[in-house]
Amino acid sequence: MNRYRFCKWSRRLVLLGWLLPPLATAASLFGDENLQIHGFLSQGYTHTSANSWFGDSSNGSWDFRELGLNASYRITPKLQISGQLLSLTAGEMQDGSPSLDYGLLDYNFANFDNVNLGLRLGRVKTPIGLYNDTRDVAFTRPTNFLPQSIYFDKVRNLELSNDGLQIYGDLLTDWGDLLFQGGMGKPVTDENVEYAYLGNDWEGELSGDFFFLGRVIYELDAGRIRLSATIADGDLDFEPGPTDPFTNGTVGIQLRVLSFQYNAEAWHFTTEYMQEDVIYRNLGAFRPDGDNTAEGYYLQLAHDLFTDWEIIARYDVSYLNRNDRDGTKQEAGPFGIPAHNMFAKDWTLGLRWDITPAFMVRGEYHWVDGTAWLSSRENNLFQTERHWQMFSLLASYRF
Amino acid sequence: MEKRQDRTAGIPDRASPWRLPLAPVLLLAFSLLFFPSRQVFALQLITHPNTDIEEISRSTARAVFSMRRQIWPDGAAIRVFVFPDKHKLHKAFAKQLLGVFPHQLRRAWDRKVFSGTGQAPDTVQSEAEMIEMIIKTPGAIGYISEDNRDESVQILQVE
Fold first, then answer.
1. The pTM is what?
2. Ramachandran area for residue B139 (φ above 0: left; ψ -120 to 50: alpha; else beta)
3. Which residues pair with A231 in a beta bridge?
4. Residue A44 has what pLDDT?
5. Which of B115, B133, B137, B141 is most worth mutating to test chain A (most A CB atoms within 10 A of its CB)?
């Protein structure tokens, strides 16, 4: 991205920065305590030693921007409506066009002494692991880029949100809280999903059928210890265009995630493990029927320094096929795709500074072996470099 | 609700301290060892004068202030008021009365606000503003230091 475009964008951001806080206070000026307005904006800079990630990063990329604006209104004590608009710019993967991140009606129909039961209808955030629900809000993420083993950015829309119905139940007890969400919904897919599972943006369309989604979280002492298990299970249906090499078939996905987090006063330890079954059926000779299991995990330790700084270290591992972790079978296969595209081992070291409660900057450095989570939209997989490093700087504002 | 709420370090139970279970005593000793210089404030949970409740368990208070419990037993909406995250009363309140760290509350609110599954508490800047908001908002709950006891709000005892 050239200097002119950057200047233009930074001016716009500064302008937004002036406009947003009055907007937030406007909600209270309406005098309606049932209405809340919140939002965030982030600008990132990414520089890699090789390969492309969120833009032309080997020359330094500013193509990482997140803008979000949400409103919620409590119609009655038990009924809330809420929605969030999101614009994400992520190199070749996301162009910044605004989309509805969620838009839902939440009916908390049963409220006992220590039990809540309710129903959500509409576009709901897909509950996965510990970070997915607010993955685009830099303040709620541990690092500028979430661990790609589980929160893949190259197919983010598969995990992002879904159109459907969700039931939730909270059991709040003296020995901890049990939080359950389960539902059915169609993931809001985009062309990145086609790139990831079918290798290109085809004329036809790969769209999400109804997925079964479920997550249970156990929290001790309001989050000192957090344990969670997630499943997501469903099919993506491919409707071929006239020139496409595939026939009318499905890509089945089953995702399983286990999560653990321990929060002390100044130390935070987090680990998550993920398996994703990908099942190809009836797509024709160019994508024979087959099953494949991707696997990933990470270990992360964060420490609060003074009151406004946090230092973080993480080791994140991704395998696109757990039966071919080093990628040798893939390389020996018909397409000869270099082996290092099948895995990625990422050491990350980051430093976050909360300048004010509403303004934050974070820098991080990644040492990566492998290119499994790079997008083929930004990279020619035959020309990627196996060993690469990344520096990322991000400033974020919230209200 | 039930007895035996203080499983974490906090204000010691008023009744017979020698009958406290071992775990909280150890935790308290531990926290004193690591954070010896923290000031202890005497704090008070307060509600709107018409609220029909005089006692609350620590786990219920936690659920209310982490925005997981949104409705009073009579069906009215709970309105939560807090001081900013870094305010000394907020820090003391979170740790002593709820037995949680302020960052845990912040994360719980952010998760709700930015996923469309709930709302954040309202923030006030001073104890005078806190009392004013509690008096004029039906269903309101908040906290003040004990020196600022005000007859016009209702005191809520944490069991």
1. 0.86
2. left
3. A214, A256
4. 97
5. B115
